[in-house]
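Re-run with default settings, no changes from the original entry. Doing this only to confirm the output is reproducible before filing.
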Amino acid sequence: MTTTRQHIIEISFPSEFGYEVIAREAIATFARCVGFDRDRIDDLKTAVSEACINAIEHGNKKVHGLTIDIVGVYDGNMLQIDIADQGIQQYQVAGAPATIEEKIAGKAPARGMGLLLMTQLADEAHFLPDTNGTRGNRFRLIWRERVETLEPEH
């Protein structure tokens, strides 16, 4: 029986704009170390930045002294990134994010593109339910290994 070693990274940073750049670069370096390709890393960097900015702006309401905590786990098949704030404002599930078309047509606010962008860049992107009554929001981003399929030879 072979076991796959998990690779884990944990980052905690002040809930202030600018620090998301440090987190983004650390997670990108982690992804590079475990073998992700450049295109996936570019997607990951954008999505992680958006999640951190949302946590600072909305979850922690830009209150200085609070933190954003990130845990990244790679198990050989999947990279999972959890971004947690301290939840001054709890996220309220309101359904799927509005589409670009809805925003352009004025049927949805122009702001709020971050959630839509994250869902497009990651294989999965969603808030995690609060199962233990703790204060704060947790957002999960998942990228799965892409398996290239070979075309059969004729």
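Strands lie at 7-14, 67-74, 78-84, 124-127, 138-144. The chain has one domain: 7-144.
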